[in-house]
Amino acid sequence: MIGKAKLTCSHLYKWYGTTSVLQDADLAVRDHEFLCIVGPSGCGKTTLLRMIAGLIEVDHGEIAIDGVKVTGPPHNVAMVFQHFGLFPWKTVYQNVAFPLNIRKTNKQEIDKQVYPSIELVGLKGSESKYPWQLSGGMRQRVGLARALVCQPDVLLMDEPFAAVDAQVREILQDELLNIWNKYRQTVVFITHSIDEAITLADRVIVMGAKPGRVVGEVEIDIERPRTIATVRHHDSYLPLRDAIWSMLRTGLEEVPV
Ligand SMILES: Nc1ncnc2c1ncn2[C@@H]1O[C@H](COP(=O)(O)OP(=O)(O)O)[C@@H](O)[C@H]1O
Ligand SMILES: [Mg+2]
């Protein structure tokens, strides 16, 4: 790996009962890197991300951020969930303010951070709306604003755009690229979509299933700043797609049926 590691996962193992979910998973993420993980359903992607977020325990192995072992939710890490994870009884403002409330931030400081976060994701004017009044795309913008409000340096995203339709998904990808261009957080982004991974990532990790493990990785050598349009027309696009797809297939073929 070139560059300084922000996040390392070393020899991770996880079992649910007697079922092995992750086996010897190794991963290192550079500071300011945008890393995407692709892999089949059930290969342990969500489990891995939740372990990095300190939300579930590691059975064997170690996760470290800035060289410090993760033993609970680290203060500089935020997560965006697949199904938004918003509180239905809270407004947009209250949902975004939630992590700051937990930290007992004062009201003035909360205002100072929440309004810019909401504006950053394009939801200015919707502060007093409830999640049920919003489209799927807007809900996930709230999820992103809530993750960004504490200015995390590691952003964990679990298939954040999987529940929105194809056009909105592409708009959100472009918006995320814009935001990341400004702040350059270290990102671990899980997706089912090879196209999404190539569009966003500096590097793509491919996982295989049963048990979940890392089967390969590909550097995405497409210059930034990127948009979906520039990526899709890039000469490297189809060869990268083929390389990732063949790794995924190898991971699947190794699974006993
Ligand atoms: N809390 C749990 N208890 C038991 N099994 C679980 C639990 N969470 C996930 N699993 C199982 O672990 C495997 C990996 O799940 P998950 O990490 O959600 O995979 P992915 O996100 O790649 O689809 C799956 O077979 C899933 O059914
Ligand atoms: Mg998952």
Detailed description of the structure:
The chain is of the alpha/beta class. The protein has two domains: 168 residues, Rossmann fold; 64 residues, no CATH class. The strands form two sheets. It has a six-stranded mixed β-sheet, with helices on both faces. The chain has a four-stranded antiparallel β-sheet with strand order 2-1-4-5, with helices on one face. A hairpin with a 2-residue loop joins strand 4 and strand 5. Helix 2 runs parallel beside helix 4. The radius of gyration is 18 Å and the shape is globular. Bound molecules: adenosine-5'-diphosphate and magnesium ion. Adenosine-5'-diphosphate binds next to helix 1.
Output the strand order for the largest sheet. 6-7-8-3-9-10
Give the C-alpha Rg.
18 Å
CATH-defined architecture of the largest domain: 3-Layer(aba) Sandwich
CATH topology of the largest domain: Rossmann fold
- What is the total tally of β strands? 10
Q: What compounds sit in this structure?
A: adenosine-5'-diphosphate, magnesium ion
DSSP helix count?
8
Binned strand content: 25-35%
Stretches where pLDDT is under 50 for at least 5 consecutive residues are none
| CATH homologous group name of the largest domain | P-loop containing nucleotide triphosphate hydrolases
The CATH class label of the largest domain is Alpha Beta
Average pLDDT: 94
Number of domains: 2
Distance between the termini: 34 Å
Instruction: Specify the structural class.
Output: alpha/beta
Element pattern in H and E: EEEHEEEHHHEHEHEEHH
Proportion of helical residues: 25-40%
Q: What kind of sheet is the major sheet?
A: 6 strands, mixed
Apparent shape = globular
